[in-house]
Design brief:
Blueprint: H1 3-20, H2 45-55, H3 62-70, E1 77-79, H4 83-89, H5 97-111, E2 114-119, E3 122-129, H6 132-141, H7 149-162
Antiparallel strand pairs: 1-3, 2-3
């Protein structure tokens, strides 16, 4: 999105917010550009996570993936030095928390969303997160079970709407009006 267009959208949203919440104390908001502890997240992450879970055969992987994403510091890599903490933050607790979390990592790796490398913490010491748009496109081409056509089409439509350029859109015909 062009900077001027983005700036205009922001101005409009701020104007509307001021109208709707005139006595708003902005210190009560979490503004990414003004706080530590932020990460960049694709606007389609909720749909991406739904697609992942639909393909994971009743063993939801999205909370594990999202926890990894949030620890990647926009570098697409995570060191798995605190596996129990990662498991807990992914939503797993109890005696089977670590084994369930590792199972979810294996599913994410099998689907192609991540790559795992061994290191000082055993066979799962480092994770690389692949671009989820590319992974989903490849899984669609392979007719991956669980990847519903409506979800894939919704992903592509929204990508076009938000002008996401991650996928090769050569098969999309350019139409000028």
């Amino acid at each position: 999105m062009a900077s001027a267009q983005k700036s205009e959208i922001i101005k409009k949203q701020l104007s509307l917010r001021k109208h709707l919440w005139p006595s708003l104390d902005e210190n009560q908001l979490w503004v990414r550009t003004q706080r530590d502890g932020f990460i960049t997240i694709p606007r389609l992450m909720p749909l991406i996570m739904q697609i992942m879970d639909a393909m994971s055969k009743g063993k939801p992987v999205s909370s594990t993936y999202f926890e990894l994403w949030c620890r990647s510091y926009d570098l697409c890599m995570v060191t798995l030095s605190k596996p129990h903490e990662l498991a807990f933050h992914s939503g797993f607790s109890g005696q089977r928390a670590l084994s369930t979390w590792k199972e979810r990592l294996k599913i994410l790796q099998e689907l192609g969303f991540i790559d795992v490398k061994p290191g000082p913490n055993g066979p799962m010491s480092y994770v690389l997160l692949w671009n989820p748009y590319h992974v989903i496109q490849e899984l669609h081409k392979k007719k991956q079970p669980g990847l519903a056509e409506d979800a894939y089409n919704a992903l592509r439509a929204r990508m076009i709407e938000i002008k996401a350029t991650d996928l090769d859109m050569e098969d999309e015909e350019e139409v000028e009006f």
